[in-house]
Amino acid sequence: MWRGALLAGTAAVSLSFTGLAVAEDLSTVSDLDLLAKTREAVEAQDADLALELLSEMQRRGTGIFARAERAVCEEAIELPDGITNWRFKGAARQAYITSAKKRQLGLETCGCLFADYPFEAFTAEILGKPAADLTDADRAALETYLAAEQRDVEGRYRAFEKSCRAE
Known about the structure:
It contains seven helices and no strands.
């Protein structure tokens, strides 16, 4: 009895998602919603919908496709030759990673932190200048940014990252 009710409910959910997937552009669905819909489509054995959703996951590099991308996902920080303070690179790297995590939280995406967010975009956004114009004096601004953002962002990002890996 329960099995029949479960199958009927699953079929109804599957049909509603099929209509949803057709009615709405998948690129507007958050990564977490995409992962949930994919799981439900697989459980409902809706091959067409599952294939469509898995294709979108692969395009984004999320869910089961995130691990393949992770190997090539790393920050690339190009500092000008004029930077002489040895602590500058560490502050720049930590601030860049924190900013990328904050950005990813806002976008609700599970892919690579640095995809579509180069170091140059970070320096323009946070320091208001291109990376080539950085000087030792900019380290204070990077450390101020870190002090203001890192603790909050790290806590929220850890929870978000767990949900990305769980899917």
